Amino acid sequence: MMNTRMWKNHDLNKNYDVVIIGGGAHGLATAYYLSKLGITNVAVLEQKFIGYGGSGRNTAILRSNYRTEEGIKFYDQSLKLYENLAGELNFNLMFSQQGHFTLGHSTAALSGLTTRAENNKALGINSYILDPKEIKKMLPEIDISDHPRFPVMGALYHPPGGIIRHDAVVWAYARGADQAGVQIHQLTKVEDILIDKGKVTGVVTNRGTVNCKQLISVVAGWSSDVCHKAGVKLPFVTHPLQALVTLSYKPWLHHVVVSGTLHIYLSQTDRGELVCGNGIDTYPHYGMRSTLGFLESYAAHVLELFPILHNVAVQRQWAGLCDMTPDYSPIISSIDEIEGFYVNGGWGTYGFKASPASGYNTAQMVANGKTPEMINPFRYNRFMENRLVGEKAAASVSS
Ligand code: PYC
Asked: What is the pLDDT of residue 257?
């Protein structure tokens, strides 16, 4: 049988129409959707290997139950693109729309969840409030007694939410882009950004200098660093987010469960592992070490909800980097001061689920030279114009 590679290796060309910095799901999705618009003289430059960053370090949760109109519409578009992605890219993405619970443990939390349910419904998103007995019917192992420190008082339930195989999303977009003629360059680090008379002209990499007309930074946690090379200062603050996976167990958890109060979330993969995470590390840094503190705090909190987990064995821990913005919404924007430079970042703890809509709209913006209506609220100048898109209340886990 012929050994066909999913994407090819190339020498670096001297000239591209578009260079994308970052070979994660967002960068590769941008490349794929650019190719669908007929733009294929494109290079994706990835400093390590594709999916090395946030795309390979998330907990693969998809949902669109946000709080603001802007966020709800955007993440709904993303979820709808995900729904058709396996067919479009001819790749089994193991997408499971198993339903998503956000638990409330106080009247204040329930009031926030109710606002989200109503905002969601008004925009046609399937989300509603459940009481503890209804929750128990769907999650028989949960403790809804008044024994825990924070008893469960209700939940926002979002049936279309679920999980997906995150690596498969990266590989499928990479293959789709490669087949259309996009070049993917791994182990290619951007060391400098070249600007002449207010216009992007290229990048200096560890493999040589490349000229381009348009340059897109799609690097999640490294956004401040890349923007710095272009002399652009945006309000990103980078925090690590930690997660863990257990050994495989008989399937018992058939929905995604999140508790903002306890700062935890978990789901069970098709292989039976529990994939678990909590809030960002409270202070900013770029370390990707796993800590015992995370493990201890996660275990203590999850046992309050699911005492049956007292004996599970953890297989692996990891951390990824999140570039947080002040309003917990992304920046997807051309940069007025530098013609041809675009920034896609600030995904905080929401990035993976946004990949399709992020790539789709970024590609439209770059191809047409005009910001699509869908992402206009996410332009960087909102911070100067006091037009924030406050999504902190819809973070699964905000610290
Ligand atoms: O926003 O759904 C979310 C999420 C899950 C894990 C981290 N963030």
From this structure: 98
The pTM of the full predicted model, rounded to 2 decimals, is: 0.97
pLDDT score of 3: 65
With contact defined as beta carbons under 8 Å apart, do 21 and 226 qualify? yes
For 372, the token pair is 């699509």
Mean pLDDT over 5-13 rounds to 96
pLDDT-derived band at 10, boundaries 50, 70, 90: very high
Which pLDDT does position 393 carry in this prediction? Answer: 87
Q: Tokens 């709904």, residue?
A: 76
Mutate to test the pocket of ligand 1, among 58, 349, 352 (most ligand atoms within 8 A of CB): 349
Q: In this predicted model, what pLDDT tens digit does every residue of 159-210 receive, in sequence order? A: 999 999 999 999 999 999 999 999 999 999 999 999 999 999 999 999 999 9
Are residues 220 and 345 in contact, defined by beta-carbon separation less than 8 angstroms?
Answer: yes
Name the 3-class secondary structure at 38.
coil
DSSP state for residue 221 in the 8-state scheme: G
The full set of domain ranges for the chain reads 15-59+167-236+326-395, 97-161+237-324
Averaged pLDDT, 197-226? 98
- Nearest atom, ligand 1, residue 59 CA: 6
CB atoms within 10 A of CB 367: 17
Mutate to test the pocket of ligand 1, among 113, 166, 245, 396 (most ligand atoms within 8 A of CB): 396
Q: State the DSSP string of 166-178.
A: HHHHHHHHHHHHH
Question: CATH says 97-161+237-324 is which class?
Answer: alpha beta
CA 61–ligand 1 middle distance (angstroms): 6
Cα–Cα distance measured from residue 297 to residue 302, given in angstroms and rounded to the nearest whole number: 9
Q: Indicate the CATH number of 15-59+167-236+326-395 among 1.50.10.100, 3.50.50.60, 3.30.499.10, 1.10.3210.10.
A: 3.50.50.60
- From residue 289, alpha-carbon distances to 223, 273, 317 in Å are 20, 21, 9
Q: Whose CA is nearest to atom 7 of ligand 1?
A: 349
User: What are the DSSP E strand ranges found in 262-308?
Assistant: 264-268, 273-280
For residue 398, name the pLDDT band (cuts at 50, 70, 90): low
Q: How far does residue 68's CA lie from ligand 1's centre (Å)? A: 16
| Per-residue confidence band for 337, with pLDDT thresholds at 50, 70 and 90 | very high
